[in-house]
Amino acid sequence: MEKAVSNYDLQVDIAKGIFLKYDQQLLIRKFSLAADQQFIYLNYINTPCRISRKDGGVEEYIENRWQECRSFGTVMTVYDLLCYHQGDTVPALSGQWCAVGAFVVTGVTDTETFTKKYAAVFDGHAEELKSTCEKMGGIIQPKMAGADVTCRIPITPFFPVLLQFWAGDEEFPPKLMLLWDRNTDRFLHFETTFYLQGDLLERLKCHVTDLLKGDINWKKYGIQEGSDE
């Protein structure tokens, strides 16, 4: 009996075909990517990735070997960051941070409901969160708005986000927030910000949880142990 294919898997396969329609040489030049005849390479949240130039499949270097990535959030974010902008050069970052709601023309965007479960995981573990962010290539920033953790995390070498975390106390629950460069809408579709947010926070949760258990294996995530890049 054949295993049912999920809608997410179908969308990933469709996206692979769409990626192959893009000018790969342009993408390589535009984003200064390493490449050979078979693959295009880039770092995604400090994990080595490569895209097949033949079938568009995305692979991650995990546990010392290349493995196919079927994560909908990862694959769709990688494709969008490379293909959304139509110019010949990388769009400029503004250097100014804003909430994702700034990119919505109408309506209200509530991301706090989604981030609550992650804030609860990190509550009481700000130092572990800091350490994990740095391991994932993040750079701790000066304190902003009273946050216990403020970290600039490169999703790719050309696109960062800003993570802020406030520990809970007697009056307020813990809070987690992602801020985006004001030019984010030049890099990816609005809906992709939610794929990226979920992917990043899920990776952080897994790393911090393993760290608290005392059995963290950075190679499991494609991050070399002892590296703070």
Q: Can you describe this structure?
A:
With 229 residues, the chain is of the alpha+beta class. It has helices at 7-19, 24-30, 72-83, 112-122, 126-135, 190-213; strands spanning 34-35, 39-44, 47-52, 58-62, 65-68, 97-98, 139-140, 149-156, 159-166, 175-181. The strands form 2 sheets. Strands 1-2-3-4-5 form a 5-stranded antiparallel β-sheet, with helices on one face. Strands 6-10-9-8-7 form a 5-stranded antiparallel β-sheet. A hairpin with an 8-residue loop joins strand 7 (139-140) and strand 8. The N and C termini lie far apart (46 Å).
TL;DR of this structure?
This protein is an alpha+beta fold and 229 residues long.
Question: What topology does this entry show?
Answer:
Elements: H1 7-19, H2 24-30, E1 34-35, E2 39-44, E3 47-52, E4 58-62, E5 65-68, H3 72-83, E6 97-98, H4 112-122, H5 126-135, E7 139-140, E8 149-156, E9 159-166, E10 175-181, H6 190-213
Helix pairs in contact: 1-3, 3-6, 4-6, 5-6
